[in-house]
Amino acid sequence: MVNKIVSTSHLHRAGEDGATYHSWKEGRYRIALVYPNGYQQGMGNLGFQTVYHLINQRDDCLCERFFLPDQKDQTSLKPLLSVESGRPLRDFDLIALSISFENDYLHLPHIFSAGQIPLFANQRGLEYPLVLLGGVCAFINPEPLAAIVDLVAVGEAEPILPPLLDVLQQRVTDRSALFQTLAQLPGIYVPSLYRPEYTAAGVIYHCTATVPETIKRQYLRQLDNSASRTYVQSESAEFGHMSLIEVSRGCTRGCRFCAAGFVYLPPRERSLDNLLDQVGEGLCQRNRIGLVAAAVADYAQIVPLQQRIIARGGEVSVSSLRLDAIDAEAVALLTQGGHKSVAIAPEAGSQRMRDVINKGLSEDQILSAVRLLDDGGIKHLKLYFLIGLPFEQMADIEAIVALVQTIAAIRRSSGVLRGHIGHLTVSVNPFIPKPFTPFQWAGMESEKALKKKGRFLQSACSRIPNTRFMMESVRLAILQAFLSRGDRRIAAMLPELARGGSLKQICAAAKWPLATELTRERGEGEAFAWEIIDSGVRREYLWNEYQRAAQQRLTPPCVPGCCRCGVCI
Fold it and tell me: Helix count (H) and strand count (E) of the chain?
C-alpha cells in the first residue's frame, strides 16, 4: 500500500506514489528535481527526499520529480516526463540534478537527450531551463560537469536553497546579470565565470574569476532546525519497507580515505526529542525505522533512541555499525529490532594498514565484536575491505585472508553450538583517492596490480567454508576515479562514454594520459581542480595527515572545539 505524506494547506495535489505538491499554475517557479538513476534508488535517497520537501513547502515554487528509466538501450529513450504531472523537462524553469555517485555522470547525456535539451551549457539559450548541480558530488568535485551545468550548490541544501530560490523566482531574463548576482550568494558556484589555466603539460595551476575566487561550502549548523527523513513512502523505493531518519551528519573518526568523513565536517547530532518526533511520524507509515548517518553507533543517544523505538512497537535498522561501539546491549537491541545480518568494516587486514588509514581499531576489538554479534544471535556477517591503499604491501593483503579465516573459525565454533552456521561475506573494493581527503595526493594502484590482488583474495576466500567473496569491478573503480578526480576538460568525453565507449580509447583520442593521471602521486604544492571549493578543512591539515599515514601514526577522533582541521574556527 502506498501512503501519502501529511499535507499542509498549500500542498494540495497528489502524485502517483502519494507525494503531495503544488498544483501547476502560473506564477510559481517550476523546478524539475532529477535523480540520474531509477526511481528505486532515488526515492531511497534522503537528500533527494529532503530537497523535494523543502522546495514544495514554499508557496512560490513547485517541484516535480524525474527519474531515468531502467532501460538497457537508453539511446532510444522516450521523452522524459515528471512523476507528478507528466510534463517534460523543457516545461520547467530550473533542472536540479541530485548526484551522489560519480558514475551517474554517464546518465546525463541520456537524460538531456530524452528531455530534448542540449547537454552543454554554452548551447542552451533563454528558451531552455537553467541547470543546477546538487548532491555530495557537487561539493566533492563539480569540475567534470562545469561545462554542462549553469550553477552548483556547494554544500547542504538547507542553508543554500532559500536565498537561491528567492533570487530565481524573480525570473531575471538577463542571464549574465543573473549569474553575477547568484555568484555572490553563499555556496553558489557559477562555472562559466571561472577560467582554469594549465601548464604546458596539461596540469591545472590557477583559476581566474571576476567573482569570489573560491566558494565556501555551506552546512546546516543546527540539525534540529530541519528534519531529514522519508517524506514520500513508496513500496517500490529502495528501503521502501522502512521509514528513514537521519540522526547525525559528519564523522569524528578521520579515516584518511573517506571523503564523506571530511566534506561533512563538523560532526553534528540531532537531539533525542527531535528524533523521537520524527520517529512518531515514521511509525505512522512503517513499522521499521532506518537510522541513517555516517556513523550511527557514534550518536550519543543511540541506545535510548533504539529503546524508545522498540518500546513503541517498532523495529530498528542501522545504516552503519562501528566495531568498537558494539557491546552486548547494542547487539541485544539489534536482534530485538529484527536484525539477522550485520555489516562491519575492518577495511584492512593488518594492524599496520589500519593505522595507515587511521581506522583506530585493533584485531582484538574486531574479534570481540564478532563474538558479541555471534553470541547475540546475528546469523550473517558481511566484512568490508579496501585494497590498493597507499603504502600497502602484499603482506597486508595476506593479512586480510588471515583475519577472515580467524573470523570464520569463530563463527563456525559458535554456529556448531547453535546448530546453524550463517554466511560470512567478504566484500572488497579498490581504493580510490578522493578529493578533500589526506589521500588526495596518492595515486591509485594500477589495474594489473588490483586485479592480481583480487584474484589472490578470491582464491583464498573460496577455500574458507561458508564464506562468499565479492569484489567491485576494477574497470568501474577506474572509471569512478577518472570522474571523481577530473577537471572540466573531461565533460567532452561523457557523451561517448555514455554510449559505452572504451575509457582507455576515449582518453587516448583526447590525448588524456589516463594511467599516468590516475596512478601518479601528486606533489605537496600541486593544485587540484576541485580547490575552487573551500571545504573548510585546511589543506595543510590534510597534507600533514598524509605524512602521518606514511609514518603509521594515529590521529585521535575530533571533539567539540578541537579546531585542528580548521572547520570549527
Answer: 19, 21
Give the pLDDT of residue 3.
35
> Boundaries of CATH 3.40.50.280 in the chain?
13-199
Q: What is the 3-class SS of 442-502, one letter each residue?
A: CCCCCHHHHHHHHHHHHHHHCCCCCEEEEECCHHHHHHHHHHHHCCHHHHHHHHHHHCCCC
Q: Give this prediction's pTM.
A: 0.93
- What is 383-401 written as a DSSP string? EEEEES-TT--HHHHHHHH
Q: From its phi and psi, is residue 377 left (phi > 0), alpha (psi between -120 and 50) or beta?
A: left
Give the pLDDT confidence score for residue 10 in this predicted structure: 36
Contact 285, 3 (CB under 8 A): yes
pLDDT at 76: 53
Regions of the chain with pLDDT less than 70: 1-16, 18, 20-21, 25-26, 70-77, 201, 203, 205-206
> In the prediction, which pLDDT does 235 show?
87
pLDDT score recorded for residue 25: 67
Please determine, looking at this structure, whether the domain spanning 241-485+537-550 carries the CATH number 3.10.105.10. no
In order of 12, 214, 379, 501, the CA distances from 8 in angstroms are 7, 39, 44, 48
Burial annotation 546-565 (CB, 10 A radius, 16+ → b, else e): bebbeeeeebeebeeeeebb
Q: Which cell numbers hold the place of 61?
A: 515554487
Determine the pLDDT at residue 369. Answer: 93
Radius of gyration of the chain (CA): 24
Grid-cell match 537527450, residue found: 113
How confident is the model over 39-63, as pLDDT tens digits?
999 999 999 999 999 999 999 999 9
> Rounded to whole angstroms, how far apart are CA atoms 344 and 496?
38
State which amino acid sits at residue 22.
H
Burial of 456 (C-beta count, 10 Å sphere; 0-12/13-18/19+) = middle
Q: Which residues of 46-61 are buried (b: 16+ CB within 10 A; e: fewer)?
A: bbbbbbbbbbbebeeb
* String of DSSP letters for 137-197: HHHH--GGGTTT-SEEE-B-HHHHHHHHHHHHTT----HHHHHHHHTTSTTEE-GGGEEEE
Are 191 and 206 a contacting pair, CB within 8 Å? no
CA distances from 326 to 42, 175, 209, 330, 364 (A): 31, 54, 50, 6, 13
Per-residue burial over 131-169, b if 16 or more Cβ lie within 10 Å, else e, is bbbbbbbbbbbbbbbbbbbbbbbbbbbbbbbebbbeebb
Question: In this structure, which CATH number among 3.20.20.70, 3.40.50.720, 3.40.50.280, 3.40.1360.10 belongs to the domain 13-199?
Answer: 3.40.50.280
Alpha carbons 394 and 434: distance in angstroms, whole number: 23
Closest to 46 measured CA to CA, from 232, 220, 224:
232
Residue 387: its pLDDT value, please? 98
How would you classify residue 20: left for phi > 0, otherwise alpha for psi between -120 and 50, otherwise beta? Answer: beta
Residue pointed to by grid coordinates 601528486: 522
Domain span(s) for CATH 3.80.30.20 in the chain: 241-485+537-550
CA distance 27 to 62: 10
Q: What is the dihedral of CA 130, 131, 132, 135, to 10 degrees?
A: 160
